[in-house]
Amino acid sequence: MTATDERLAAAVTGHEPAPRLRLVLADYFTLGNALCGFMAVWQLASAQVDQFSAGVHGPLQRGDVAAAVVLLLIAAVCDLFDGRVARKLGGSGMGAELDNLADVISFGFAPAFFVIAWGTLASDEGGLLPIAAAAAVLLAVVVRLARFSCQAPGDHYFTGLPSPFGAMAVITVVLLDPPVYLGVAAIFLVAWLMVSRVEYPKPRGRTAFAVLAWILGSVGCLTAWAVNAPAGDALLYSGSSLVLVLILAIPFYVLVTRRRAGRPGEHPVPSARKG
After folding, report:
1. What tens digit of pLDDT does each residue of 48-69 get?
2. I want to staple 140 with a disulfide (CB 3.0 to 4.6 A). Which of 14, 111, 191, 227 is the partner?
3. How far apart are CA 258 and CA 253, in angstroms?
């Protein structure tokens, strides 16, 4: 039976057709997202075990961290494409649920593990604070995705910082390696932004191309740093600055724009498969 036949049958009987519980192409992108998040955690964990076995206590090696960062960037690309593929070719009845579960792994648990590896395994300064910050990141992503699942889709704004951007911001803080207390404060701020009612507009038209170019620039800098390109520190700081400026500047831009327009804020919510 075709999708048209199913809709006609549903109209006649008054019953919605049962969702198709089998994987389609978009779901494989989602599973790739989850797998990359898992592999990033495995990369960091195995690297730390190797250091302990060798009697080395200190920051993780750059190559190990870079490999984990690249895996999470690939996870973000998979998360970007699964929704587009689903809209073009159709999705399955499991698509939205799979997307949320994958996002918890790649953009919740994996960044939280980055924080633990940075704040507790690689230094002795922060005590339990890095663990609390890591827990805040994980719980913020879980709450954000649960809230997203209960809301009707909107077209113009994300309510709260989208979890892939939140994960990127957390990893950026870790890569910059600030003093522990400053880094923990920044990570708590990112966790709050994810569950806040701060509006992040969905880029459209020329703005979409500008934001995309900005993101590609930051990702390009971080990727070049990850593969040990020349001027690595400059690339790291440039890419990190682009990420943090974008995430923190957008809410202020929205606020200023609305005040100039003289209209109150609205609270639309994200569309399907984009948590």
Report:
1. 787 777 776 666 677 778 788 8
2. 191
3. 9
CB 251 within 8 A of CB 241: no
Q: Do 163 and 191 form a contact (C-beta atoms < 8 A)?
A: no
How is the chain classified by DSSP, letter by letter?
A: --HHHHHHHHHHHS-PPPP--S--HHHHHHHHHHHHHHHHHHHHHHHHHHHHHTT--SSPPHHHHHHHHHHHHHHHHHHHHHHHHHHHH---TTHHHHHHHHHHIIIIIHHHHHHHIIIIIS-SSSTTHHHHHHHHHHHHHHHHHHHHHHS---SSEEES--HHHHHHHHHHHHHH---HHHHHHHHHHHHHHHHS--EEEPP-HHHHHHHHHHHHHHHHHHHHHHTT-SSHHHHHHHHHHHHHHHHHHHHHHHHHHHHHHT-------PPTT--
Contact, 257 vs 66, CB < 8 A? no
**Selection from 87, 91, 75 nearest residue 31 by Cα:** 75
Helix axes 95-104, 25-53, angle to 10 degrees: 20
Please tell me the pTM assigned to this model: 0.77
The structural domains of the chain, ordered by start, are: 22-261 (1.20.120)
Asked if 83 and 273 touch (Cβ cutoff 8 Å), the reply is yes
Q: Please tell me the distance from the alpha carbon of residue 234 to that of residue 236, in angstroms, as a whole number.
A: 5
Of 221, 200, 255, 205, nearest to 69 by C-alpha is 221
